[in-house]
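Q: For a teaching handout, I want to show students what a protein-ligand complex looks like in token form. Below are the inputs, and the small molecule is 2-acetamido-2-deoxy-beta-D-glucopyranose. Please produce the holo structure.
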Amino acid sequence: MGCVKIVFFMLYTFLCQLALSSSSPHLCPKDQALSLLQFKNMFTINPDASDYCDSSHPRTLFWNKSTDCCSWDGVHCDKMTGQVIELDLHCSHLQGKFHSNSSLFQLSNLKRLDFSYNDFTGSPISPKFVSHLSKLYVLRIGDLNELSLGPYNFELLLKNLTQLRELHLESVNISSTIPSNFSSHLTTLQLSGTELHGILPERFFHLTDLESLDLSFNPQLTVRFPTTKWNSSASLIKLYLYNVNFTGTLPESFSYLTALHKLDMGYTNLSGPIPKPLWNLTSIEILYLDYNHLEGPISHSTIFEKLKRLSLRNNNLDGGLEFLSFNTQLEWIDLSSNSLTGPNPSNVSGLQNLEWLYLSSNNLNGSIPSWIFSLPSLIELDLSNNTFSGKIQDFKSKTLSVVSLRQNQLEGPIPNSLLNQSLFYLVLSHNNISGHISSSICNLKKMILLDLGSNNLEGTIPQCVGEMKENLWSLDLSNNRLSGTINTTFSIGNSLRVISLHGNKLTGKVPRSLINCKYLTLLDLGNNQLNDTFPNWLGNLSQLKILNLRSNKLHGPIKSSGNTNLFTRLQILDLSSNGFSGNLPESILGNLQAMKKIDESTRTPEYISDIYYNYLTTITTKGQDYDSVRIFTSNMIINLSKNRFEGRIPSTIGDLVGLRTLNLSHNVLEGHIPASFQNLSVLESLDLSSNKISGAIPQQLASLTFLEVLNLSHNHLVGCIPKGKQFDSFGNSSYQGNDGLRGFPLSKHCGGDDQVTTPAELDQEEEEEDSPMISWQGVLVGYGCGLVIGLSVIYIMWSTQYPAWFSRMDLKLEHMITTRMKKHKKRY
Ligand SMILES: *[C@@H]1O[C@H](CO)[C@@H](O)[C@H](O)[C@H]1NC(C)=O
Ligand SMILES: *[C@@H]1O[C@H](CO)[C@@H](O)[C@H](O)[C@H]1NC(C)=O
Ligand SMILES: *[C@@H]1O[C@H](CO)[C@@H](O)[C@H](O)[C@H]1NC(C)=O
Ligand SMILES: *[C@@H]1O[C@H](CO)[C@@H](O)[C@H](O)[C@H]1NC(C)=O
Ligand SMILES: *[C@@H]1O[C@H](CO)[C@@H](O)[C@H](O)[C@H]1NC(C)=O
Ligand SMILES: *[C@@H]1O[C@H](CO)[C@@H](O)[C@H](O)[C@H]1NC(C)=O
Ligand SMILES: *[C@@H]1O[C@H](CO)[C@@H](O)[C@H](O)[C@H]1NC(C)=O
Ligand SMILES: *[C@@H]1O[C@H](CO)[C@@H](O)[C@H](O)[C@H]1NC(C)=O
Ligand SMILES: *[C@@H]1O[C@H](CO)[C@@H](O)[C@H](O)[C@H]1NC(C)=O
Ligand SMILES: *[C@@H]1O[C@H](CO)[C@@H](O)[C@H](O)[C@H]1NC(C)=O
Ligand SMILES: *[C@@H]1O[C@H](CO)[C@@H](O)[C@H](O)[C@H]1NC(C)=O
Ligand SMILES: *[C@@H]1O[C@H](CO)[C@@H](O)[C@H](O)[C@H]1NC(C)=O
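A: Here is the structure, written as tokens, with 2-acetamido-2-deoxy-beta-D-glucopyranose included.
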């Protein structure tokens, strides 16, 4: 039976091929099929290679000899000659390197070639591209991987592809000037982020067919516009010049760009009022002039009547928002970080389509204007960091997803209408909002980030909070007046990363159900009245990095459980101001694997954060408290001060070489300072004051060159204070209350030459303090504005497990990501 089937099948395919080859004489030529197959075999298929794509699939997967290559996915042949003329392999999961011998170059009739969004990392693009594929009309190689072209090839490419219409080399490292010898047929040139330098040849603006020119993210490329009417005026639709080198003003000739739909002149050092020639752009739909120095009011212009998206973020514009009354098409407005003031127009009635409104960091005051609450289509609203006052009204929009009203002077309760089902990001922190937290908050099934911190909320935490849908990542109710026990059960399978209930009046125990928060990274229950023993079991939360239980009524000895896998990721442990007793928890300290290495991986410090939230906690370092600060990944702190710990200081603390701050003060510790502390080579702050520590200060501590603050006062130390380096900079107060200590800076001499601190050294010291590990500016800049932009887009990306690269985000990266993301997803 089976045999018959096979024979029949073979016969069938044979006949089919016969039939096909006779009926359609222009099958894909054999040599071209072979070339394509050879090309296919040079690459592996890896979905990660196309992870920037909205949709992607492995087009080459089913290419095989038994079918006509003209029918292969992504391959198109000329109907008459059967030659392969188009190859579209964008977002095709290809990973590997191009070789200069690539068989692809035999497809000399190719007119269209699209390789964008695959992973060809490290492949130099061969000159053969140019010489063999000289009939190309369209070439797309752009992607976000590391691909380089090099100056020589770029010049060759432009010179030799004389038929070229479209060139997309986005994010390819070209690192060259732009030659002026190129195809006069060009319609589309996409060269953003290609490290171009030199001066853009004026000829581009005179290409009569040019429709789209994107040279963004080429800060070294100098752009000057022709002062007379451009030959491309009637054809140019898109002009993207974000972050190119442009100095000067927009010439009158800009007025003739009547076809222009999209203009991006962000980050191009524009100054003065919004340039006049722009008012003539009657077709403009998208206008980005963000990150410039524009000033003055935004005039009442009816001219941009087609405008849908407007970003003037980060300029110095002032005046009010009256101009909004005249424009009804707007969908997206970003006026954040300007100096806009009230009063605001009260009768804006249009804006039926407005979905995104960002007005953060201006000087807007008074009540939030009622037209904002009335916007029917609003999705994202950011009014943070203004001085709006009064109550939050009912929102008309049923599609609100992202709301940040952070840092205003709003008062009154949270309106129930705000808690609609599409909401997933709600930040109301740093206002005077009062009342109870309604349990209807628990019904928000999409909620990811809920930040109600620093308000006047009172009553208990709704019992249902721990059972909110598993989307919830961050729960911040810190610095309110919440009382009662934490009477909620955190459900199994939750996604919580951050729980901060810091600074309330919570009583009772640390809820045992926290053990269900498998992803918990930050737990801050500090400054409450919790009465419990040490929750050793929290050590099983393998992601926990920050544990802050300071200033509670926690008590008793901290027992060893014998399990050495507890708290392995912890980098901040603050148990200060409690009633803990017994020996220092040597076994727990011994488990802190994260602190046993020095984080030297990156030169620019990174914060602990996720895409929605920069992790904040209260820390004490160098003798100072810092409230709600961002935390660098390299910042490692142990604070066990103000308890009743007794016994000796375990020398194994010396293994925690990543420690920056160690505070064991105000306990009843005795014995010596372990010499092993000399291994704490990045230690910046050491406080052992007010204990019963005896013996001499180990001379080896002089090797701690980062030590800025030392407090050994009020102990029983004796002998000579170490000399040299940092030790020359500590004053009397570091040592007072130790009757047996001698040497600089104390008046009792030690014998030998006491070194004198020179002013030069002091200067150096001060300089070092200018780069503290925790910088207030950093704290303020990073949180609040900036993050909210396009969050609904991030949400979609996140919820589809989209970009792995979102897990890390420092300021620079954040900028890069938001700009790139805007560029790809939203900016245009
Ligand atoms: C060849 O491609 C055809 C069509 O896509 C597919 O059905 C067939 O299974 C493939 N054969 C091999 C050997 O991969
Ligand atoms: C091209 O060269 C590489 C190494 O340079 C080699 O591995 C590969 O087999 C060659 N491919 C063809 C099609 O000749
Ligand atoms: C340009 O293309 C022509 C025609 O395909 C080719 O003969 C020539 O070698 C190419 N020039 C360079 C410099 O590659
Ligand atoms: C781009 O290429 C140039 C020259 O080849 C090189 O100096 C530069 O570092 C490259 N840039 C990046 C970001 O790789
Ligand atoms: C541009 O290139 C073409 C073909 O290579 C050549 O004939 C012409 O002279 C060049 N023009 C300039 C201005 O370099
Ligand atoms: C930017 O352009 C100005 C002149 O317009 C020039 O002086 C400056 O060197 C250019 N900067 C860079 C980085 O190319
Ligand atoms: C602009 O177009 C006109 C008419 O086609 C032509 O004469 C002129 O040379 C062009 N200007 C430039 C700078 O290419
Ligand atoms: C631009 O607009 C101004 C004022 O409306 C007008 O006087 C001027 O002629 C316009 N320029 C062009 C080139 O259309
Ligand atoms: C920006 O423009 C101002 C003048 O408006 C100029 O002084 C400054 O050098 C420019 N900055 C850059 C980076 O080009
Ligand atoms: C708040 O706005 C002011 C200007 O109004 C700005 O200087 C400050 O940096 C902003 N703060 C934050 C956190 O964005
Ligand atoms: C916790 O909440 C439940 C249900 O609301 C209630 O019955 C119980 O008394 C509460 N327990 C405490 C200690 O408040
Ligand atoms: C903690 O609770 C226990 C009993 O539940 C009580 O005896 C003790 O006084 C409480 N401690 C503090 C500091 O309130």
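A: Two things your students might notice: Residues 29-196 form a domain with the Leucine-rich repeat, LRR (right-handed beta-alpha superhelix) fold (CATH 3.80.10.10). Residues 130-131, 134, 156, 160 surround 2-acetamido-2-deoxy-beta-D-glucopyranose (ligand 3) (CB under 6 Å).
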